[in-house]
Design a protein that fits this description.
The protein is mostly beta strands and 121 residues long. The protein has no helices and 11 strands. The strands form 2 sheets. Strands 2, 4, 5, 6, 9, 10 and 11 form a 7-stranded mixed sheet that branches. The chain has a 4-stranded antiparallel sheet with strand order 1-3-8-7, with no helix packed on it.
């Protein structure tokens, strides 16, 4: 079964750092595009950071300069490094990735289960 598994969430103080991981498992060929989303209670899910198949990154304005998205294709892993965290960053964070399932270009998008990030003193 192909799936994305997220980890790295937790409680951190304002100004602290956290790194989220997204592991793609199962029979896949490689990761194509991927992104990190977050959703706070009662709010719409929003795109925090994304990277295209060509390696172009984009970020939510409020996290620019603080968050960095990356991926390790050899390990089928994606990451979101979060620095200078603020209370307003508190949310459930989700990994989303388009995965190549074989060498013929068969693709499918998957969501992770989400991991809670709480920024509080």
């Amino acid at each position: 079964q192909v799936q994305l598994v997220e980890s790295g969430g937790g409680l951190v103080q304002p100004g602290g750092s956290l790194r989220l991981s997204c592991a793609a498992s199962g029979t896949i060929f490689r990761i194509n595009a991927m992104g990190w989303y977050r959703q706070a209670p009662g709010k719409e899910r929003e795109l925090v950071a994304g990277v295209t198949s060509d390696g172009i990154t984009n970020y939510l304005d409020s996290v620019k300069g603080r968050f960095t998205i990356s991926r390790d294709s050899a390990k089928n892993m994606g990451y979101l490094q979060m620095n200078s965290l603020k209370p307003e960053d508190t949310a459930v964070y989700y990994c989303n990735a388009e995965l190549y399932l074989d060498v013929w270009g068969n693709r499918r998008t998957y969501w992770g289960q989400g991991t809670q990030v709480t920024v509080s003193s």
